Each structure stands twice: as C-alpha cells, then as structure tokens.
Fold these 3 entries.
Entry 1:
Amino acid sequence: MITVFGEGRGFRVVWLLEEMGLAHRLRPVDLLAGVEKDPEFLAINPAGFIPAIRDGDVTMVESIAIMEYLMARYGPTPLAPAPHDPAFPAYQQFLHLGEAGLAASVYFVVGARNFAPESERQNWSADQALDVFQTRLGLVTRQLAHTPYLAGERFTAADISVTYALELAQHGAGIALGDTEKSYIARTSAREAYRRAMETCQSRKAWFARTPVQ
C-alpha cells in the first residue's frame, strides 16, 4: 500500500496511481495548521512540503520525481513512452515543463494574489512569475494545435503534470485560459482515473467548487 502525504501537487501522484491501478491511500497534511504540529509527516519529509510518499522502505518527495519512480518501479506503462518511442522527447519536455515552467511559476502568483497584503498583490516578482507562466504556456498551446495530448495521440503522464498546472492557474490565480487549453482540460479531466482521484482528494474538490473558472 503506497501512502501519499498531502494533496496539492499530491493530486498528480494520486491521479497517476489511479491510472496505473496501484493500491494507495491519501494521508492528509494540513499546511495551514502548521507542519510543526505533524511530527509523523515531518519524519517523512523534514523539509515540510507536500507531496511525499511512503512505499515500503522508500520515502520520496517532489511530485514529478515520485511519478517517474512509480512508473519505473511498477511499469512498464503506456503513461511513460520508452526512450526509442518517437513520442519520448515531447513526453519528457512536457512532463517537466508542467512543474518547472508552469506550476512552479504560477505558485508564486497564487501566493501573491491570495495571501499577500492588499498593497503587495501586484508586486513585481508576482508579475514576473506570471510572465514566466504565460511564455511557457505558449509551448503547450502550440503543441496542442497539432496533437490532442502533449506527447502526441495518446495520454501520458506529461498530461497529468500539465493539467495540474493549468488547473492551479485557473482556480488559484484566476487566469483565464484559451479555448485550446480549455478543450484539453476537458479531455484529460474526463478520464475515469481523474474522477476517482478527485473523489479521493476531497479538499481539492471543495476548493474547485469555491473557485469557478473564467
């Protein structure tokens, strides 16, 4: 039984586990209450951020690294094209772009827009992070103009990575996406594994209900 600690980016991991049919449980982590009050979680990740996993004797953090571990450990899986597959370069690019280029930048926009004092919500750094997000989003838009999924004709873990980032932008920062991205999210979020993951991640489901997209 694989334990996933925390929602947030942990949704990527839960969704992947659902796609792969691997037994798992979600162990909530309340960051707002303060991780210093959660010694069990801090024993898993002393840095105090989510997600983390425990898989037998293995503990890991960082959502993309966790996804790569799970697919390598419990694969092969069509969610991860093999290196000789023509889809592999795009898969690798967008798997990592979903975090490094999209979610990591929009995360700071979410923080500024929702938690900073009113006078600091349009600060220079948040605007720079938004610009980084939007330029990287252009790569997604361009790819989706040619293929239904980011690695080509079939759904892969790259789509889990990027869908999470796009939904974070919509619900967390109020960013309006274009028709191409909206159609893409409609395709990926219609998957049964996505729906099962949302039922597991009840805090995320409630957050979406409170933050309708533009």
Entry 2:
Amino acid sequence: MSDMTKRDWSSHPAFICPEYKSSVLRGTSQNLIRIDPELAELTGPAFGPEVVGPQDHDLTKNGQVNGEPLGERIVVTGQVFDEFGKPVPNTLIEVWQANAAGRYVHKRDQHDAPLDPNFLGAGRCLTDAEGRYKFYTIKPGAYPWGNHPNAWRPNHIHFSLFGPSIATRLVTQMYFPGDPLLPYDPIFESTPAGARARLISEFSLDVTEEGFALGYIFNIVLRGVNATPVEA
C-alpha cells in the first residue's frame, strides 16, 4: 500500500467495521507497510475522449432498448478537486447504481424487484478543464441486503475516479439528502461522523432542469484533509 498508510483515518472508514458484516471477511487485519510508489503510479493511467461514448454520461439513454427507463430523472453534477483545492481536469469518472426499483443489472442480484429493460445502470464521463462533470440518470431505489434483520441500503450511486494517477484512485458512494435510511446503514455509518456529510449530495434548484429532472450537486476531493471518504 502506498497511499492507505497516509490516510486521515478520522475521515475514512476502518478496514473492518463489525456492524458491516462482509468487511469482517474481506478487510485486512494486518498492519500496512508503506511502499514508495513507482513513477508509473504517479503519472498514470491517462484517459482521453476516445474512452467515452456520446451517451456514456446519460444513463437515461445509454441503455434504451424500446423506450424510456422508468423512475425519477435526476441530474448529478459537481467538481473534482485535489488536496490543494485545485480542479482536476480530464479525469475519468465511472458510476453504477440500482434502478428505480432497487435492482442492479447483475446476475448476483436476486432482489425480488423488476429489472428495467431500458436502464443499464452504468455510465462514465471525463471532467472538463475546470474539473466539472455531469450525469443524467434515474434516482436509484432502496433495496434489502441481508446484513442484519430488515436491512435496507439507502438510495445511492457508486463513483469510481482515477484522478491524475493510481495513487489518487477513489471509489466512494453518493447519498441523497434527507434519506431516512442513512442512520440505519452500517456502510454509511462506518464513515466517521465528522466526514459523513461529504458523502451526501446537495439538492439544487439551479441545477434542476425545468420539466425534466431534479438536480443534485456532489463535489469530490481526491486526497487531503477534506478528502471524500472511500467506500467501506
């Protein structure tokens, strides 16, 4: 590990959180050893416009087969910053999520909820010169996940960012304001209390597109004391 040993653990979840049962099985229990990163880890990978298709950022369109996907359309936008507060341009952002009924397009998801034939639930884009990004999608539904009795995951979208190098790779989750399930979710609660607000998007009427989609802002900081917490 080259970066984990430098993390601010007052902001990020521990590797093992007993309330989040699968972390007990997959989280490391050994002390980490710092390894100085090689040049390749500090300078890459690099992604250009060729890796992004014209509809990759629009999850309301990139999975259409015979009509519009079902559910509440939303716009998610924001900026990506480095540890010094500077925008991070041309960085790849990938997202994946459940559909409006709380079902993923994945063979291991056997939740008794319908799949939407017109919703893939995955997309990607590059940030612009000011580190800004924008996705159109459907607000994901909550779903049961078996961690404990009557366990339900809050509405959320998964984010993966590479930043300028492997050392700035970030995988996290974006939640929605006012979700009543947040206090009951061990994954969200595994993040230290002082940093949880960084995982919750902000509703914005300015971002909302009249007659089409509600808008949310989710800014992301890759490293430093204000870093967006990693996914537990």
Entry 3:
Amino acid sequence: MNERTIIGDDTEGPRLGEIGLQQFAPYLMNRIMGRYNASLREDLAKLGLTTPKMRALAVLSVIDNLAISRLAVYAITEQSTLSRALDALEADGLVRRTADPDDSRATRISITEAGRAAFETLWPTMRRTYNHMFAGIDAAEHAAFVATLQKILLNVRKHEF
C-alpha cells in the first residue's frame, strides 16, 4: 500500500460533498482549534492578550531568543501581525528585542520574567482546555494522534523546523 492509497492521487477522488465535513480532516482541525482559541479568550482578555500575543509567549516560554521570522512560523502568525503583537508585548514589558549578533538585519525576541509570569497565569486554562479536548482518549490513542499530526506537519511544512 503506497502513501496515496488512502486518499487517492491529487487529481481524482471524491468531492467534498461526498467526503462530508465530518470526515474532512482540515475542517475538523480548524473547528477544534477555533473552539480551543475561543475557550481561552476570556482569560486572554483578562491579561490583555490576544491569540497572536499568547502564541508568541507560549513559544518563547519553551524556545526563547528567537528571530522574528522563526517565531512567526512557530507561533503560526503572519509576520506583520506578529510584529504588531510584539510591539504591544514589548510596551507591556513582556518581551524584549535585541539585535541578532549573527545577522545585523535580524532582531531576536526574548520573553521577560513578566512575560513568563503572564504565560504561567494563562497556562492552567490552556492545560485544562487541552485535557478536556482529550477526555476519554487513552494514552495510546493520544500518542498515535500526535504522531499522525507530526507526520502531517512534515508533509505540509515549508521550513526545516
């Protein structure tokens, strides 16, 4: 069985109406992430954060001191949107910009202690929402799901990371 056997080749196969929304993975992934983000909005608003700001803080809490271009990829945010979010985060003292020592054209972004504290305030809500998403899913199913998502990401990514 080759990799194309499951869904057919790129030019033929069932139409979306034949597949159905409940069987179309991109629709399901978007709907899930829409609900996940909506579940965080109230807590984000209390902290003066938006989804792009939260994503930047989340990434920087794990991988600090990133070039803006790389942070945009990890935060799944257009670079122009991220730049505006970083302006606000910097004004609030949650991140800091520094010149990239290896590339004079680039800027690196680091999370501050205040930024880490803001993210840690939000983390329990993120964790609770994550746990709710996976309620009734055992460890083996969860691991298989994450492994499948990682394979899909390898198929669609445009960057080496």
